[in-house]
TrEMBL record:
Cited SMART domains: PbH1
Organism expressing this protein natively: Streptosporangium vulgare
Name this polypeptide is given: NEW3 domain-containing protein
All residue ranges annotated as the Alpha-galactosidase NEW3 domain in the record: 672-748
InterPro entries listed in its UniProt record: A-galactase_NEW3, GH141_ins, Ig-like_fold, PbH1, Pectin_lyas_fold, Pectin_lyase_fold/virulence
Residues covered by the GH141-like insertion domain: 219-256
Length: 775
């Protein structure tokens, strides 16, 4: 992070700016609290002048309200802190300033053609712009759409034919070129614009259609049953929450949700695709910039509606432009990979972020919010095609702390690029390095581009992802690496066979991806829509990679997914609860180099693990423990409690992650009729404040007897302290409860601070055969 010089600086310089139109705001004034500036553009000019003096910190204080941008705020070398000083853009004390690229929509009236009450409202919004996003009461609204059954259409090399006569009306629709076709497949979520509809033939725009029918998990050969939609026609607007923008007439249409009063609803229509562009050149990077307490909101992203479409390949990366090596019969011959498709890889593009950072050093985001954005929230060191300055990569010492990413069309944070300069840079200054993402919350986002991850990092040296909360994601929680092992030193035998190296050489040096730490994150409810993902997903070699003490909860597929070429990773002391699929899975097929994985000391409620065997391919798999969700060991409870944001960013007490762990053990474990067993409840205070009012109660099946043996646990446990309570449990004689159905339950009640917790644990002692005296 930025470091101050040893010389004593002058007092810092402060500039105050209010939202445009605020009373008393004037760009000709002094820019103080009493007479703030009126625009961020003027604030930038004055901050640049003050920073140029080079001997003081500069602070731009944003007053409360919405600062509406007419163009992105671009900060380069001239806007940087000098000589170890920092230029900080931050919220004024007590303020919650919002930087928005949208305009509010008002003046709604019913849209009642021929007097018919349709439930649709319209408003005039002007012309000269387009948007693929609309935000209503802080929620992204759905563009008007219809769903296509697989039998409704027949896919062709130029588009598709309409086989359902109920769709004949499409040929008469106006603005056919504004209609999108969406295909949600296994790990790709694709968009292509329509060119025309004539009779039963739908012709798609190129090269979008060619690129969406090229490679793997394609529209015509998906890896699972697809979902198809047509989107963005006034005629499709028939469900509450849908909208349509007529760019020719300048009219916005919207059907309110049940109970939604359109006259009071906050409706925001984006005009900009990005809000903040931080970047210089490799010779003169942007540096020494800090952003604190700001909210970024109100953008769209128009690229998927262009002739390029969104030929998604995974995690926000897509095939772009005409592919020179695509054969004439590619619709059939390349529908599940081919040599020509391999030739496209070095030219894949990245989704652009609303806030972009490249060619930049010592940049901080603290307590910022990214919400209602048209694509990725924050891009750090992405390829040049994903940064408005045209200079990509080269991000050094960037930190994102205590920030929130939610309710946007794309994922939260993307670090690194995917093109050759990202993994084998032609200039060493291009290397992305020393990136820290900590104590952030990324949840309920990637609502339109379902293939994008909450946090994704491709190629970066020294990356730390620690104590973040990730939840409610359609696909991957945390994704690491790219290239499927093909860019690693020595290449991949699989990609020799596929023909990739007919178009470029095999690298003899490692990629820039190394020394990645993923520690203490809480990832839950991911892979809810897509497939081939997990809480944590990896690709390619990651020397020095560590995945430690993370809590993965309720993944819709895997806990850990080590995809092609994943190597040199150590995975220890993580907890996996309720994963629908294997807690760990490795793709080691087709001769790829997946291996050298060390998995030790992990706890999981799902015993399944595939593709990773101890001693095979250099793997070490030892000391992992299968547990039940109802009786987690103390060590697992410690990991669970400590996962996610820490300190001032921890948030309200979470009853699902209590600060006290409890574990039941039985001795002897088998129970026979008439014989007692001793059940010991061990409790430990895992938090940083005393646990008080502590009690343990035991419940046994009807007819059984439970007696406390010895003293109860102490009523108060200081941080780090533990105690035990023992109970003598006696089975009746005889008893007829089948083996495996003899639950002993413990309820641990305590307080920590102002919060009260109830922690339930259960133990099922084994029953060895028929009861004593039975036949």
């Amino acid at each position: 992070m930025p470091r101050r010089t040893s010389a004593a600086p002058r007092a810092g310089h402060t500039i105050v700016v209010a939202p445009t139109g605020a009373e008393g705001a004037d760009d000709r004034g002094p820019g103080g609290t009493g007479r703030p500036l009126a625009t961020l553009g003027e604030a930038r000019r004055r901050a640049r002048e003050a920073a140029a003096e080079g001997n003081r910190d500069v602070t731009v204080l944003l007053l409360d309200g919405t600062h509406r941008l007419t163009s992105p705020l671009r900060l380069g070398a001239a806007d940087s802190g000098r000589n170890g000083h920092t230029v900080t853009w931050k919220a004024a004390p007590g303020a919650r300033p919002v930087l928005s690229g949208a305009r509010p929509v008002t003046g709604w009236e019913p849209d009642d053609p021929d007097g018919a009450a349709t439930g649709v409202y319209r408003a005039h919004v002007g012309t000269g712009f387009d948007s693929r996003q609309l935000y209503v009461d802080g929620v992204p609204a759905q563009r008007a759409r219809i769903r296509l059954a697989r039998g409704d259409i027949t896919l062709t090399p130029t588009g598709f034919t309409l086989d359902n006569p109920d769709l004949a009306y499409l040929a008469a629709l106006p603005d056919q070129g504004r209609i999108d076709f969406q295909a949600t497949l296994a790990f790709t979520n694709r968009f292509a614009p329509v060119r025309s509809v004539s009779g039963s033939e739908v012709v798609m725009r190129q090269p979008a259609w060619d690129n969406n029918t090229y490679g793997y998990d394609t529209v015509q050969t998906p890896f699972r049953a697809p979902a198809f939609f047509l989107i963005n026609s006034r005629s499709f607007l028939d469900e509450p929450g849908e909208w349509y923008l007529d760019t020719t007439a300048g009219t916005l249409y919207y059907m309110p949700l049940p109970g939604q009063d359109i006259s009071r609803a906050r409706v925001e229509l984006p005009r900009l695709e990005s809000l903040l562009q931080v970047g210089g050149t490799y010779d003169e990077p942007a540096r020494g910039l800090r952003f604190e307490g700001l909210t970024f909101t109100g953008t769209t992203w128009l690229r998927p509606g262009s002739p390029d479409g969104y030929a998604n390949q995974q995690t926000g990366v897509f095939v772009s432009g005409v592919q020179p090596h695509r054969p004439a019969d590619a619709f059939t011959s390349c529908s599940s990979g081919c040599a020509g498709f391999e030739a496209s890889r070095d030219g894949w593009a990245q989704a652009a972020a609303a806030v972009q950072v490249s060619a930049a050093d010592d940049i901080e985001f603290v307590g910022t919010t990214f919400v209602n954005l048209g694509s990725v929230g924050l891009g750090i060191g992405n390829d040049a095609d994903a940064h408005a300055t045209g200079v990509g990569l080269g991000a050094h010492r960037v930190s994102v702390v205590g920030s929130t990413f939610t309710a946007s069309s794309g994922g939260g944070i993307v670090v690194g690029g995917v093109r050759p300069d990202a993994h084998h840079p032609s200039d060493p200054r291009m290397v992305n390095s020393d990136i820290v993402l900590s104590d952030n919350r990324v949840h309920a986002t990637a609502l339109e581009y379902l293939d994008q991850a909450a946090i994704f990092a491709s190629y970066v040296t020294r990356l730390t992802i620690e104590h973040n909360h990730v939840s409610e994601m359609p696909y991957i929680g945390i994704g690491l690496g790219y290239g499927w092992g093909a860019n690693d030193a020595g290449g991949s035998p699989d990609y020799v066979e596929r023909g990739l190296y007919d178009f470029r050489p095999i690298h003899d040096t490692p990629t820039t991806l190394s020394d990645v730490r993923v520690v203490g994150n809480h990832v839950r409810d991911v892979v809810r829509t897509m497939a081939e993902g997990g809480c944590i997903y990896t690709l390619s070699a990651i020397p020095g990679g560590r995945v430690d003490e993370n809590y993965c909860e309720n993944s819709g597929q895997y806990g850990l997914y080590f995809d092609e070429g994943s190597r040199h990773l150590s995975v220890s002391d993580n907890v996996f609860v309720g994963t629908a699929g294997q807690w760990a899975h490795a793709n080691n097929q087709n001769g790829n180099h997946t291996g050298d994985l060390t998995l030790t000391g992990n706890h999981t409620t799902n015993p399944a693990i595939t593709g990773i065997a101890d001693g095979d391919r250099g793997n070490v798999v030892r000391g992992n423990v299968v547990v039940t969700g109802g009786n987690l060991p103390i060590e697992a409870s410690r990991v669970i409690y400590n996962a996610g944001p820490t300190g001032p960013y921890r948030g309200a007490p979470d009853p699902r992650r209590p600060p006290v762990g409890a574990f039941l053990a039985a001795d002897p474990a088998p129970v026979s009729a008439g014989d007692p067993i001793i059940v010991t409840a061990t409790v430990k205070n895992l938090g940083d404040r005393p646990a008080t009012g502590l009690t343990v109660s035991i419940t046994v099946p009807e007819g059984w007897r439970a007696e406390r043996a010895g003293r109860p646990v102490r009523r108060a446990l200081p941080p780090g302290a533990s105690d035990t309570e023992t109970w003598r449990i006696t089975a009746p004689e005889p008893f007829a409860t089948p083996a495996g159905q003899v639950p002993v339950r413990a309820s641990v009640v305590f307080r920590a601070g102002e919060a009260e917790y109830v922690l339930d644990r259960s133990l099922t002692p084994a029953v060895p055969g028929p009861p004593r005296g039975g036949r």
